[in-house]
Amino acid sequence: MAEQLSFTTTIPDWPKTSQGGCAYAIHMHDTPEAIAERPWEAIQYAVRRVSPPGDSRSDFLGNVPVKMHKFRCSGLKHCEFVDKALLDPASYRDIGDYWEKLQSVRKSLTEDSEHQGLRDAVTWAWTVKNDYSVFKACKMAPTKQLPSCKPTVFPSSDQAIGGRIQRWIRCINHASADGHQKAFVPNRYDAYITQIEQILTSTDELVCHEGCYVVSRSRRRNVVHPLSGPGQIKTLECPVIIWFIVPPRQLRPWILINSIGTHSHPPPPPTKIDKPTLQALFNDLREGRVANGNQDKGLRKWQQSPAFQDLLTDFDFQAIGESNIDLINYGYIAYMLRKNQAIHDFWASLRLACLHEWLTYHKGSTSAYIRTVIDTGEEFLAVCFHGSQAQLWSRAPTFQLDTKCKKIHDKVEYEVIFGARIGFGNQYISLARAYMNSRTALAYKRLFQELFSCLEHQCKVQVRWQHIHQQGIIGVTLDQDAGAIQGLGEYLHSIDSSHDVEWHLMNCVRYCQVRFDRSISDQCSELGDSDRSKDSMWQKMKTLPEALTSQAYFESCDMIETGYPCLKYWIRHKKIPIIASGLCHGVSSLSRKHWDSMSGDINGVECLHEQSYKTGGHFISLLYAIKSAEVLDFQQLCRLATASSNSVSTGYPSSVQTQRDETSSLLNPLQVILHSMNHQKSMAMEDPHQNQATLVCQGHRRHILQDLYLRSVQ
């Protein structure tokens, strides 16, 4: 029963209610089926089911069978220190008045610079105090933190420049260099030293002297306030009962909602946000993090960032609340900031961040850099390359491969670079990069499978092998990495099972001579042998690859093993056929022409690793490493295209005309693809709707790449 009935075509965000009942007859013709089946998920009030759905019939709908769903309003969650004016439902004529009051309270508490300075100071003090509470403040002390350890504030005996007194926070058990906690109080907190000392030394519960604007339908985390610390989230109960009357699918389009009772609270802030606004907001937060060096950004800093102002400009609004009433109290924005931080945090969720980046911005995109991400929980693999890099595979006769562990922090993931020389004497360029957490043969086999599969299916580049298809890649130069060697052999065996792994490796692999020489020096150093004369152990080991035949190579190995028993394990490794064939042409199945066309070292990809370190740094987060590599690879492609168009060499010029022509032909695909990217941008600028979508929703990655392209061709 209801004393008031309204007809509408959409489910109301905040259904009206009264003691006699307010009913809605809703025509669901244009409503998605998922919402029509579960209309209680579309309203902004938090509700909980009272009883299981029951079967009945509706006279109003023509005696059709219906499902009766009974829900109770869950009330309103709020901070215990919330401004009491925000809890009185009778104070507001409509929802707009409530949002205006909510925004004014929030503004008064977040935009006053002096107040924010106090909040920052006491938040810092609470962090120090909490370290003592969890016994990690003095964890560097020999005895760890003791029960008697407590923080205290005292002035330093030395004065800083300008006569300012430097204050310390230190443990009462602190002595010189004993590991107990000691830290300077930042000078920006000098004005709040009284509050800091009160927080650190007080044993009583501190009283909150400020209000709060946090009201929500579902918040669970406590709110931190100056002096008092965390304010608990409390629930304001509500007696309202809401009935949802839903006919079977074939008997719609009408459904009924009947709300009975009076709410004991104002309407909670909404949580349902339209997808365009949500996507634009998340992209804005993401761009702000990239522009800020991927550092943490709180709500107040984000409001002061250029990215926030750009978002308002894109939507032509003075304040974010004008764009969507859902965002008026910034509660959802704070949630998005926490979500963004969790995804891009330096020390946590690194693989999740990479997976999210691929699924959100790269998967299925024609301008993707991250081509695939595989994360089974135990094994991780990400394959990355630009479309322009893919075009070089079909023209590069050989490539180098090297794996380093210095790029990603904690050395959990490894960076693998595939590089090739573009023309004789020119610089090396990255053909692809991969990031994985294992160096086993199985991991490398999967790497080769995923890389060449992405090249074929996403870029229409089918990689061929000279020893299998009589055309394509001649061979690979790499280090004597057992996992990489075996993984490559097993991959080649999977595409040509008529030959075994050993045959494939002996026909396409050459090992780095520099790494081989380095291993000899290391071996001699371990044995304390510094003799480098013509007949020395060092010289005999070094001349092993110079053997002209397989027989001569293995005879030299036997002579060294007999003359120097201390080298028996080293020699036995070099006598393994797949190792010997990569070190010495006399053992290899490669022709002399093909052997000489392959690089005798992997210095090229080592230089690419060094460039990667200079661009992004050492031991950085996984996602940031991929982003910096994306920009670095694009810069290399732009330099090549620019050099080609202006007939400028990017490296040492070749003295052979045919090799210069070969270099020029390699660069032509890059020009075509980069021109295509510029054309796509021009088309987007001509269409205002497409332009807005490009500028707002495509993300920061595309802006960086297009900007690099434009600068490279100017």
Percent in strands: 15-25%
Radius of gyration: 34 Å
Overall pLDDT confidence: 78
**In terms of per-residue confidence, which ranges show pLDDT below 50 for 5 or more consecutive residues?**
290-296, 321-326, 652-714
Helix content: 40-55%
Largest sheet: 7 strands, mixed
Structural class: alpha+beta
Provide an overview of this structure.
This protein has 714 residues and is α+β, with helices and mostly antiparallel strands. Among the domains are: 4-75 and 237-260, no CATH class; 92-227, no CATH class; 275-344; 513-589; 657-713, no CATH class. Helices cover 44% and strands 17% of the residues. The chain contains 26 helices and 22 strands. Strands 1, 2, 3, 4, 5, 14 and 15 form a seven-stranded mixed beta sheet that branches. Strands 16-17-20-19-18-21-22 form a seven-stranded mixed beta sheet, sandwiched between helices. It has a three-stranded antiparallel beta sheet with strand order 10-6-13, with no helix packed on it. Helix 3 (113-133) runs parallel beside helix 4 (193-201) and helix 12 crosses helix 14. The radius of gyration is 34 Å and the shape is extended.
Topology, element by element:
Blueprint: E1 4-8, E2 22-27, H1 33-37, E3 47-49, E4 54-58, E5 64-73, E6 76-79, H2 95-110, H3 113-133, E7 151-159, E8 165-171, E9 182-184, H4 193-201, E10 215-216, E11 223-225, E12 229-231, E13 233-236, E14 241-246, E15 254-260, H5 275-291, H6 299-303, H7 306-315, H8 320-323, H9 331-344, H10 350-362, E16 370-375, E17 380-384, H11 387-393, E18 398-404, E19 414-421, E20 428-436, H12 441-459, H13 466-469, E21 475-478, H14 482-495, H15 501-506, E22 509-511, H16 513-527, H17 537-542, H18 550-563, H19 568-574, H20 577-583, H21 592-597, H22 603-616, H23 622-645, H24 657-686, H25 688-697, H26 700-713
Parallel strand pairs: 1-2, 18-21, 21-22
Antiparallel strand pairs: 2-15, 3-5, 4-5, 5-14, 6-10, 6-13, 7-8, 8-9, 11-12, 14-15, 16-17, 17-20, 18-19, 19-20
